[in-house]
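To assess whether ligand presence alters the predicted conformation, the chain was also submitted together with adenosine-5'-diphosphate. Input:
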Amino acid sequence: MSGWLKNLSLFDFPDDGGSPEIYRLLRRRIIVLMVLITVIPLFSMAMINSHQYRKTLRQEIVNPLLVLVSKSKHSMELFLAERLSVVSFVGSEHTFEELADQGNLNRIFHVMKQEFGGFVDLGLIDENGMQVSYVGPYDLEGRNYSEQPWFHEVCSRGAYISDVFMGFRRFPHIAMAVQRKIEGGKSWTLRATIDTHTIDELIASMRLDAKSDGFLVNKDGALQTATRNYGGVLDHFPVGLPSFSSEPNYTETTDSLGREVLVAYAYFQNSPFILVVVKPMGELFRSWRTLKGEIFYVFIAGVLIIVLVVFKLTGSLIHRLQESDERREAVFREVEHSHKLSSIGRLAAGVAHEINNPMAVINEKAGLMKDLIELDSDFKDKKKFLALTDAIINSVERCRSITHRLLGFARRMEPHIENLDINEVVSETLGFVEKEARYRNLDLRLQLADNLPEIASDRGQLQQVFLNLLSNAFAAVEDRGTISICTCDCGEVLAVSVEDNGCGMSEETLNRFYEPFFSTKKKGHGTGLGMFITYGIIKRLGGRIEAKSKEGQGTTVTVYLPKRLQAQQTG
Ligand code: ADP
Ligand code: MG
């Protein structure tokens, strides 16, 4: 179990560093898990519901059917018992001699027929099985029954009701007989036959629907009444006898027509009959099947909706997760980058500071050397040495300007903040470079947004920033190149962008864009400090800087400045 749970753990991934595979895996796991935990209960509910409903429905169908079978069986038993009582009563009320008289027997039979109905004939049989007298449609007088099984049964049990048999007139009869004992161990038997009309009527009164069947069958499986689907009287009941039960009962089986059927039945107590009602299940469970279909559709619809929602939800969840991971990664990278820049900056400032003093010494000594050379009128190669000392002094000057700028970057100086019109600062800065632009035939395009709000910032530092950007753009373009300077209001911030159609930058250059001392320019043309210093200034002023470039096509550097300066960003 715990192993299984471990396998299911959502966040147990191969560690391969935030690849899309992880998100796909996570997504798949969440989907499988969510679908499982929602579909399994839904499925169980549907199963339980359908099972419960089937059970209830069965009870609702079976119970009234059993009541009907029980009642009908009772009526039939009552009918048979009543007829047997009549025969028994006649046997008790009259002596053998009275009954042996044909006239008497005629009269008695007439009364029986009139008062009770259903009787077909009546006969008196002596102890040897010989028919003594007879009233009825057949000529049975003088017949001997001693060899017949029913005669033996009535001799041993005193009363007897036969199975249904076809008489000479080819319609179903039931025979019943009672035996009377007289003194001297002698006995005689009174036997009557009844027709099965009343039983047929009782079956009809059950009002079974057209596809169902109700009938009597005997214990040998011979049909005792006509059926709709299983043959006529005395045919064999093809479905087979239901097992004995003293109470009305039911079974489910397949009948000879191949239908699933419900067989409700009741065994008679004193006669060899079983009342059987056969109902096809198809009819009974039609409503159940409809409901089952509905449950199925609801279930499928539910599952579809669940899957859809799970897919959508998981998709957007994973998407957000991935996005926030990426954003975190980017922020982390930027922080790392700015940390790197600031420590390099501090290091550079330290070095610059240390170098400043020896530089001053070199400068001083070189100046002294120059003075000495100038004063000494006999000095050989005076001109040559003067040029050399000048070169030293120039180089020292250049070094000092670099160290000065480095120190400027690192110094925690408070910016001199005032309210500025950015358009004005940009125009002023352009003034410094106009001459060169004209000289090189550059196309300077100025697009200044109207109605820019004033912002609080440092004029001198911003001028330095724009100058750096412009001088880089100047260096990047050929003569007759185009440089556009735009300002615009971007909501919380103002943007100033410098775009050129110059040489552009490779991926590698772009990556090292802000690095100090990184320059692609020829020796003596670039210090590699321009963007480094620009970056520092913009950070201090609470803004940010963005560079886009395509090698061979051009570069756009955009500076975003906050409209309102925030206190902590002045560090
Ligand atoms: P420098 O200008 O002294 O080389 P910067 O820090 O100003 O140093 O620029 C660093 C490098 O970035 C440059 O050497 C150049 O390769 C690249 N660069 C800067 N601006 C542009 C631009 N507008 N177009 C093409 N490359 C540029
Ligand atoms: Mg530069």
